[in-house]
Amino acid sequence: MRAEDVRGGTSSGTVSPSAFVMPDGMAMRYDMPDPALSEYLTGYAIYASIDRTPMLNWYLPAPAMISVLVDAGPLTVSIGNHRFGPVDRASFYGPTSRAFRTETRGGIAVGIGLSALGWSRLTARSAGDFHNRVAPLSVALGAELSARLIEGLDALDDDSMIKPLLDEVFCGLFDRPHPRDALIRAFTALTVTDGVIEMKDVADRLDIPTHELRRMATRHFGMPPKLLLRRARFLRSFIRLITADGLNDYSMIDSSYFDASHFLRDAGTFLGTTPRRFIASDTVFLRASLRARAAVIGAPTQALHGVAKPAPTLPNRSSGDPDRLQPSA
């Protein structure tokens, strides 16, 4: 499959083609995973460009993601002062608390969003080990998954077949429950709730000590709970402003912000600059993806993707290590 062959769009028949409009020579596709995978994978994104000259693009801080390159030139990723690359064809982008920039040279990039619940069922490793890092997928999640994705995508000649392939590759990989499933679901729901920002409040709602919340968040979500909650609050506010073209209308920011200057301090933390300067930079794919993802999946960005099912009542805590994978009975 070549970039020239990507038509873009989605397998969902209810989304207007206008959601996927891109500049000439570029195409974009979004698809929902199979419902059986919806708790673990937050969406499939495909970006394509036929132009092989270097192109810069900025992206918002996000949860973990798998990226596979097809017929693509070298790609490098910059997160803060750290530069990764050229990255492997199959790469793992760890959870980020900073906006990151990519430099591409055409081709196709297939992105697979991974929820905290999905991460917990795939590996016993801590997501915190990959905070603001990009690593070969073979290192993060194993050579077998990396090889299956690369070989499968290389064999396709139609972008509409990417979703069925990914559904097939991931089918069965999340079947083993984790002891913290209910807690991970419940915390995920709180991170996308307006006004929730205090760690003590969250710990009380989840009925766990704050030190246990800190450990769980770092292990499964990749960073301390306070940083996760601040990231979600900032992104909720930032995206409301930019999608309404109202960067000066601070009445739309999250209710837990004291004032506009409080919000702008968070912009410095998560974007590295002001919202206006960030949007004025290289954000062609970002702005298009916010529109298309919202139309197909319901949330404009992966960091604001909620739980696929209602969070169940939390079970009683055991005296054992709740973050250790238990053997099957």
UniProtKB/TrEMBL annotation:
Region (Disordered): 306-329
Ranges of biased composition (kind: Basic and acidic residues): 320-329
HTH araC/xylS-type domain segment(s): 182-281
Region forming the signal peptide: none
InterPro entries: HTH_AraC
Name of this chain's protein: HTH araC/xylS-type domain-containing protein
